[in-house]
Write a structure and sequence with these properties.
- This protein starts with a helix and ends in a 13-residue tail after the last helix.
- The strands form seven sheets. It has a nine-stranded mixed sheet with strand order 3-10-11-19-16-15-14-12-13, sandwiched between helices.
- The protein is an alpha+beta fold.
- The model has no long low-confidence stretch (mean pLDDT 95).
- The protein is 31% helix and 27% strand.
- A hairpin with a 6-residue loop joins strand 5 and strand 6.
- The protein binds glycyl-adenosine-5'-phosphate.
- The site of glycyl-adenosine-5'-phosphate (GAP) has 19 residues, from strand 11, strand 16, strand 19 and helix 12.
Length: 505
């Protein structure tokens, strides 16, 4: 679906809309309505089941979002978390250098210094995208963090966290004691991150307040026991640096084992496979639309040693877009926070020797993936628009309709109540024709609809009463009892889980 059409549909169905819409909106800020909020929660739960569920030694925490300045100074964000920015002297607009140079340098400007970007601006006939002027400033590094004075007396500065990962590093020594004093130890956070993006755009893609789901795995690089055999034969669609620099844009499928043969560490490739399976098998993105895009030495984030971005091809945004990544951060974070806090964050291993653990990070942008689920899942078939969401991600599980408003409404309410009591999300709908009601549920991705009619009332006990069940994707219909329906819907909601690391695989 095209960008405008998709955004209009999501707004109309109350999935999401701009914050402060009645004031004309606020750039880079969006609110979720009932269906969007529920879908987002389901995506978060699916992420937690898949990533935190990987080990008994992986924990999910819920830390605060405000960080004292000392934290972002030590982490390197105060110094390095910048984007090159260009402004127009005529109309005063501000742009990311990457956006303004897109036409001449589609691969972006990661790794280039402001001076090099300045040269590119000189070499090409670049104009202000807003007013067409050529009076553009030299690029300057613009820090993306939101900082503010903290406390009534002022003088103390604090920042909204630019990535949830920082909260896990701050929690590491506490969690070492809460856990089993053993590596690997995983700490996951799902929560808000904040960035003062120079040019927010494409709705959920470049926001100023967004949700990340990140797992930091602390481990000993000399010993990271993993069931690599269970991942070794998985073909991964990778685009490695040498092919990229030769101008290739399409990934090639390469087995996980072959990536290890090419020099990537087993633990890293294992997590590439785990993340890829999440995209393909849990979110059900078509494997042809996924690309694992390797970042070069100069392009990687300042804290990374290895970085593959997970990109997915989205029609509404005109190409591959980054939705998550796997980062090998080495001991960068714990060594910086040891130095910054003055607290030794190394741990004692079984043999008594001390180690500053390394970090493997999986990062996942929840909002971007909500958009991707809409882009890839919403399809138009003639008059019908269907959102083909996996049932366990759908905002609700079943629409319950009375065939005749007057005769069957009380019974339909009984079904809704019984389903909800059994923990199944059910939506009552009596407005318009049955066809209209199917259409509304289809657009929201609700996988089942059930219609209560005269025959329903014939059976004596509620559990044995029957109604017509219709499936969203096949449109097949069948007669089913309330008890059988409840059991089937329960099963459809079960979140996919991986084989645990400490349970074998
Ligand atoms: N902890 C590592 C980290 O923050 P990142 O590549 O800067 O890495 C991770 O961000 C993910 O967060 C991205 O893959 C993307 O999905 C999401 N993300 C980043 N900036 C965003 C923004 N402005 N709006 C929405 N999502 C964003």
């Amino acid at each position: 679906m095209k960008y405008d059409e998709l955004f209009a549909l999501l707004r109309r169905r109350g999935v999401l809309w701009p914050t402060a819409e009645i004031y004309g909106g606020a750039q880079g800020l969006y609110d979720y309505g009932p269906a969007g909020a529920q879908l987002k929660r389901q995506v978060e739960e699916a992420w937690a089941a898949w990533f935190i569920g990987l080990s008994d030694d992986f924990y999910r925490i819920d830390p605060g979002e405000v960080l004292p300045e000392a934290v972002v100074r030590a982490s390197g964000h105060l110094e390095n978390f910048t984007d090159p920015e260009v402004s127009c002297a005529k109309c005063g607009s501000h742009f990311r250098a990457e956006t303004i140079l897109e036409k001449w340098r589609p691969e972006g400007v990661d790794g280039l210094s402001p001076a090099q970007i300045g040269e590119l601006l000189q070499q090409h006939p670049v104009r202000c995208p807003q007013c067409g002027s050529t009076e553009l400033s030299v690029p300057r590094p613009f820090n993306l963090m939101f900082g503010f004075e903290f406390g009534a007396a002022g003088g103390e500065r604090a920042y909204l966290r630019p990535e949830t990962a920082q909260s896990s590093y701050l929690a590491f020594s506490r969690m070492w004691d809460v856990g089993r004093h053993a590596l690997p130890l995983g700490i996951g956070v799902i929560g808000k991150a904040y960035r003062n993006e120079i040019a927010p755009r494409q709705v959920l893609f470049r926001m100023r307040a967004f949700t990340q789901a990140e797992l930091q795995v602390f481990f000993d690089p000399a010993s990271f026991p993993l069931p690599f055999a269970s991942a070794a034969d998985e073909p991964l669609p990778v685009l490695r640096v040498p092919r990229r620099t030769a101008g290739e844009e399409t990934p090639v499928f390469q087995s996980a084992r072959s990536l290890v043969d090419e020099g990537l560490p087993e633990f890293y490739v294992f997590f590439l496979v785990h993340m890829y399976r999440f995209f393909r098998d849990v979110l059900r993105y078509p494997k042809e639309s996924i690309r694992l895009f390797e970042k070069s030495d100069t392009e990687r984030a300042f804290y990374n040693r290895i970085q593959f971005d997970f990109e997915v091809k989205l029609e509404s945004l005109g190409g591959f877009k980054e939705l998550g990544a796997v980062h090998y951060r080495g001991d960068y974070d714990l060594s910086r926070h040891s130095a910054g806090s003055g607290k030794d964050l190394s741990v004692a291993l079984e043999g008594g020797q001390r180690l500053l653990p390394h970090v493997l990070e999986t990062t996942f942008g929840v909002d971007r993936n909500v958009w991707a689920l809409a882009d890839l899942g919403l399809v138009t078939e003639g008059e019908r628009t269907v959102w083909r969401l996996p049932p366990y991600l759908a905002p609700s599980t079943v629409g319950v309709f009375p065939l005749m408003k007057k005769e069957h409404t009380t019974e339909a309410h009984r079904w809704v109540e019984a389903l909800r009591k059994a923990g199944v999300g059910a939506e009552f709908d009596a407005s318009g024709s049955i066809g209209r009601r199917y259409a509304r549920m289809d657009e929201l991705g609700i996988p089942y609809c059930v219609t209560v009619d005269r025959e329903t009332l014939e059976a004596p006990s509620l559990g044995s009463r029957t109604a017509t069940l219709r499936q969203r994707d096949s449109k097949e219909q069948e007669r089913i009892t309330l008890d059988a329906l409840t059991a089937r819907l329960h099963t459809s909601r079960v979140l996919p889980r991986p084989s645990p690391l400490n349970g074998g695989a």
